[in-house]
Amino acid sequence: MMGVGADNKTESTSRKLTLQEKEEVELGNDGAMRLVKDDLLSAEPRDTWGRRLEFVLASVGYAVGLGNVWRFPYLCYRSGGGAFLIPYLIMLFLCGIPLLFMEFTVGQYTRLGPVHSLAKICPLFKGVGLATVVISYVLCTYYNVLMTWALYYLLHSFSPSLPWQSCNNTWNADGNCSTGFPGNATHLKSASQQFFDHKVLEITTGIEHAGGIRWELFGLLVLAWAIVYFCIFKGVKSTGKVVYFTATFPYFILFALLINNVQLPGAKDGILFFLMPNWSKLLEVQVWVNAAAQIFNSIGISFGSMISMASYNKFNNNILRDTYIVSLANSATSIMAGFVIFSAIGYMAHIHNLPVDDIATDGPGLVFVVYPEVFSTMPISQLWAPLFFIMLLCLGLDSQFAMVEVAVTFIMDGFGKKVLQVFKRKELIVLAVCSVGFLLGIPHITRGGIYVFQLMDHYTAVVSLMFLAFFEVLAITLIFGVRRLSLMVENMLGKKPNLFFRVCWQYLSPMLVLGILISSIVQYTPARYGKSYTYPLWAEVVGWFVSLVSIIWIPLGALHELWTAEGSLLQRLKKSITPTINLESVSQKPSGESIALFAAA
Question: Potential cystine with 527: which of 25, 46, 225, 458 (Cβ 3.0-4.6 Å)?
Answer without folding.
Answer: 458
